[in-house]
């Protein structure tokens, strides 16, 4: 079956390389009446990425050559230069005034980049309960982006983050069935990464990014976590205002630890603060930014950690000036009360929250008493006990995408790949939905069933080959072994915590 170049251009080409393509399926061109854009106007800092490769083959053909589509030369160069001069604006220096409606192309590119780094926390997480590595990262720290085919992001992972599963929240922690599991009390929860020398030149500064994993079960965690607001000082996070309160579940996950466990003997808070302290020292003679990002529960932890970094003063450079601290939040819930919001914003932390209006999670907790009922809150003097969103909101609506099913399924509405699809097609309120970078729509169905059936993309198509099983030398199938996990805590952790006055007793 011959396929013309015109027909190939009607296929949804990928703008990311971390995707498995359906090489052998026949794809009738008649189901793609809408041409996908290939102008590539918003490459941003993705210029180091490999060209997209799409295999197109008819049924019965197994050895067709890949078709390589190169983005026009120079398409990303101008934006790279623009980013170098505009990064402070993109990171919220002016609270994103004038950048959201219409949508600024450079901001979209940066939001997508951080969103993909958040997605990496899902793609790399081992949630197979039969694996002895359940709850860990599938890749060693120095191979994370290589394993996910994300080298083009230009960051080096400097630390993995682990949380203790002693916090009784079953919808967040994977529950292993294997008695020989790698750790009985820890789960991998994210990572800290620093932009490489080459990427730092494009970014215009050295970027320290903290990426947080959300819940594998997506939406169910809402029922487990929404308990009550409590003073943040009760979890050892100092603040001058005792009325600064956050959701208790978030605070517990952030500060709890298990001294008997190699991976969670330091709390997530201690892990983050010690690594940020270390990287600030290493790069003290450079221009620096600190960025936290996450999806769902991960966005709550991104907000809380950004607050903690600024509140502790870790963002103050050697010259006495603060470095920008920004949060890029996807599908995040409310984190704290009005006093938390005031303190966070008073510290200069900038938060941009990307939300899908059909997603229930950003509407929780505080369904009744929230920022939309300030009159009632003030009338009842309920500021300290009401949940209030922080920062600036970028509102998206899945109903505007012609590619998505008309569904209110909570998992679909909340899915991060769905968010990145909506972000790619958003140009401003009331404007036509049109994919700006040609981001592959197949990514939307990576872990859910959100695309219309006419696109012939199977639901939840991402899965590990043979679920990690391999044939042994004796011909029997067994779960594949992995290298011994050694990515626990850097040697400098205790010294950095000691400098911060947070050093625990040596273990």
How would you concisely characterize the structure shown here?
With 507 residues, the chain is α/β, with parallel strands linked by helices. The chain has helices spanning 5-9, 77-90, 105-123, 144-147, 197-203, 221-225, 248-255, 268-282, 297-312, 338-346, 374-379, 410-414, 416-425, 493-499; strands spanning 52-54, 67-69, 155-164, 186-195, 206-212, 229-231, 245-247, 288-295, 325-330, 350-356, 392-396, 469-471, 477-479. It has a domain at 90-401 and 464-499: Rossmann fold (3-Layer(aba) Sandwich).
Can you give keywords for this protein?
14 helices; disordered N terminus; transit peptide; single chain; alpha/beta; 507 residues; globular; lipid metabolism; phospholipase A1 activity; Rossmann fold
Write up this protein:
The chain is an alpha/beta fold. The chain has a domain at 90-401 and 464-499: Rossmann fold (3-Layer(aba) Sandwich). 26% of the residues lie in helices and 14% in strands. It has 14 helices and 13 strands. It has helices at residues 5-9, 77-90, 105-123, 144-147, 197-203, 221-225, 248-255, 268-282, 297-312, 338-346, 374-379, 410-414, 416-425, 493-499; strands at residues 52-54, 67-69, 155-164, 186-195, 206-212, 229-231, 245-247, 288-295, 325-330, 350-356, 392-396, 469-471, 477-479. The strands form four sheets. A seven-stranded mixed beta sheet has the order 3-4-5-8-9-10-11, with helices on both faces. Helix 3 packs antiparallel against helix 13 (416-425). The longest helix has 19 residues, at 105-123. Its main location: plastid. Belongs to the AB hydrolase superfamily. Lipase family. It comes from Carnegiea gigantea. It is found in: Plastid, Chloroplast. One of its GO terms (cellular component) is chloroplast.
